[in-house]
Amino acid sequence: MPEGHVIHRLADAVTDTFADRSVAVSSPQGRFDVSSLVGVPIERGEAVGKHLFIDFADGQVVHIHLGLIGKFHFEPHAEPWGEVRLRITDGVTDADLRGPQWCRIITTPRRTRWSPPAGPTRSAPTRTRTGATRGCDAPASRSPRC
């Protein structure tokens, strides 16, 4: 099963390869309808734990969890081979998703339920949860849990 650092690397690759570009999105396996994503620019990829989110400019989000056997490969443009659940391409590079546990289109508001509960992330190093330090105003010697 891919660990978090692998998902972060994939999110960075999505952003570096496809951000602010119009892409072709398809489901060669025919598992779901991606027609609403065709031609919509990708804003960024983001990892939250083992979840990969691909944010599109119109507010749609592709939510991917690779599970035990999922793979997401970036390769030079060519015909798809094998069981490709999702393909994102700019005509130069293809990102092919195979065997994920989850791959679905959600909306930005629904995506917020996977936001990290507290603390910094690579994409928001200064973010903290409101109230995360509640009750911790006392000096450290008087409040060992803080």
UniProtKB/TrEMBL annotation:
GO BP term, pick one: base-excision repair
InterPro entries per the UniProt record, alphabetical: FPG_cat, FPG_N
Region span, Disordered: 110-146
Pfam annotation, one family: Fapy_DNA_glyco
CDD domains membership: AcNei1_N
Record domain Formamidopyrimidine-DNA glycosylase catalytic: where: 2-95
PROSITE patterns: FPG_CAT (PS51068)
Bias (Low complexity) ranges: 120-135
Protein name: Formamidopyrimidine-DNA glycosylase catalytic domain-containing protein
GO MF assignments: DNA-(apurinic or apyrimidinic site) endonuclease activity; oxidized pyrimidine nucleobase lesion DNA N-glycosylase activity; zinc ion binding
Gene3D superfamilies per record: MutM-like, N-terminal
